[in-house]
Amino acid sequence: MKDWDTIAAISTPMGEGAIAIVRLSGEEALSIIDRIFITPSKKKMSEVPSHTIHYGNIVDPKVNEVIEEVMVSIMRGPKTFTREDVVEINCHGGIVSVNKVLQLVLSQGARLAEPGEFTKRAFLNGRIDLSQAEAVMDLIRAKTDRAMNLALGQMEGRLSKLVQGLRQHILEILAHVEVNIDYPEYDDVEEMTHHLLLEKATYVKNELEKLLRTSQQGKILREGLSTVIVGRPNVGKSSLLNSLVQENKAIVTDIPGTTRDVIEEYVNVRGVPLKLVDTAGIRETEDIVERIGVERSREFLNKADLVLLVLNNNEPLSKEDEQLLEVTEGMDVIIIVNKTDLPTNLSIEKVKQLAKDRAIITTSLLEEKGIDELEDAIASVFFDEGIEIGDTTFVSNSRHIGLISQAQTALEEAIDGLNSGVPIDIVQIDLTRTWEILGEIIGDTVHESLIDQLFSQFCLGK
Ligand SMILES: Nc1nc2c(c(=O)[nH]1)N(C=O)[C@@H](CNc1ccc(C(=O)N[C@@H](CCC(=O)O)C(=O)O)cc1)CN2
Ligand SMILES: Nc1nc2c(ncn2[C@@H]2O[C@H](COP(=O)(O)OP(=O)(O)OP(=O)(O)O)[C@@H](O)[C@H]2O)c(=O)[nH]1
Ligand SMILES: [Mg+2]
């Protein structure tokens, strides 16, 4: 492996948990541990077999003072996470002692790792490609089972393999182009290659299109379907949020630090991850200017994939209800007529008329009625796009989506060129570009600053 510094970091959450791990990677990892770790039988870590774990004490050699009682894992490269020598010191969880161990390791010649630097080394040493490294980060952040499976698939290299296959096709096309450029005098060669070229290029273009079609669902699986609950005060918005959350308690995560007057919850409805936003707080501005309420919801509406618009069965349709119905026209909206346990004062006919083709569900959240129907409606918003989840390889990362659509444009230019008899060396340029752009997904043709920027988003110690 390349002779970079030996890096070290605490790879477990700070101050949490019963065990904390200080991880080292690099050429000096074994010699550093030998200077500060003493086992009862005085074993040298540079001599033990790889992938073994050892009990002993971490000792500051300067003052001969025991700092921690630990277990140390020894993993020699290249069969390690980074492909370099890796040493992991398993400490008792306390912040002070773990930090002391880290400081000691640093004083012995290791350097504090940057965020994501262990994974970056796995990439730079060729164990994983860029899209697999990005998947490691997605896995850490995954909030639902589906998002996790998506990340795992990408980590195993599903997207990478697909992209590599398409790049291989483009290389083959380019080889045919070469033939054409080298032997222009043979007309029959040209005719044959032209036909083959078009066929192969069209195949790749279709594959890219297929991949792009998964991107919307891929993003939703990754980030959650951004769902906003709107409605007048007291119609039952918060009750709706609570009932969806309670019904699906298992995979609910609170996101701390969101604006105080906006409640955001992750909920898994029939396998569809929702990022539910309850637009509470509209009420406070309500008394002052009625329009402000609608304006504020509009802000959230702009960012929403799905709107749950709640109406009150017990009250006549108000001006604000009508405004909300208007504002949300053309969006994915489920209209919920709530409080069906109370006498009906709402004209369902009028709602239907304003709803146009949007789904209307009736509920009594108080009596827990209509929630199944609502969940069905939510799931169908997601699944009606017509993509089967089963074995599909999804693109979910905006960087990848952007690159695939750029590649598609470049390839279309090549195909247009072929069809309109543009000189073959121009077509060659477009094809080469397509190949390069696809290479950026897996990090084969990518700028170093982008790599730095991507890995810096990782957490410390990863
Ligand atoms: N203690 C600990 N737990 C951990 C990690 C770690 O670094 N340390 N990981 C870190 O995030 C994850 C595990 N990821 C890993 C991925 C690859 C290899 C690895 O050694 N791969 C080699 C050899 C495989 C083999 O033995 O055949 C390779 O692919 O060449 C190790 C860990 C999760 N748990
Ligand atoms: N009878 C009846 N009451 C309900 C129903 N759903 C909610 N409520 C009640 O209506 C009141 C308002 O409910 P919330 O969920 O706080 O309404 P909201 O839309 O969030 O109100 P704001 O946050 O003030 O805008 C509460 O007292 C609920 O218990 C229902 O289906 N039937
Ligand atoms: Mg509320």
UniProtKB/TrEMBL annotation:
Cofactor stoichiometry and binding remark: Binds 1 potassium ion per subunit.
Assembly mode: Homodimer. Heterotetramer of two MnmE and two MnmG subunits.
Record-given protein name: tRNA modification GTPase MnmE
EC number: 3.6.-.-
Residues covered by the TrmE-type G domain: 224-383
Co-factor(s): K(+)
Family according to the record: Belongs to the TRAFAC class TrmE-Era-EngA-EngB-Septin-like GTPase superfamily. TrmE GTPase family.
InterPro entries linked to this entry: G_TrmE (IPR031168), GTP-bd (IPR006073), GTP-bd_TrmE_N (IPR018948), GTPase_MnmE (IPR004520), MnmE_dom2 (IPR027368), MnmE_helical (IPR025867), P-loop_NTPase (IPR027417), Small_GTP-bd (IPR005225)
GO MF term set: GTP binding; GTPase activity; identical protein binding; metal ion binding
Residues the entry annotates as binding GTP: 234-239, 253-259, 278-281
Binding residues annotated for Mg(2+), in chain numbering: 238, 259
Binding-site list for K(+): 234, 253, 255, 258
Cross-referenced CDD domains: trmE, TrmE_N
Pfam families: MMR_HSR1, MnmE_helical, TrmE_N
Locations listed in the record: Cytoplasm
Entry keyword set: Cytoplasm, GTP-binding, Hydrolase, Magnesium, Metal-binding, Nucleotide-binding, Potassium, tRNA processing
GO cellular component, one term: cytosol
Gene Ontology BP terms: tRNA methylation; tRNA wobble uridine modification
The UniProt record lists the keyword RNA-binding: no
HAMAP family according to UniProt: GTPase_MnmE
Binding residues for (6S)-5-formyl-5,6,7,8-tetrahydrofolate: 23, 88, 127, 462
Role, per record: Exhibits a very high intrinsic GTPase hydrolysis rate. Involved in the addition of a carboxymethylaminomethyl (cmnm) group at the wobble position (U34) of certain tRNAs, forming tRNA-cmnm(5)s(2)U34.
Enzyme class, broadest EC rank: hydrolase
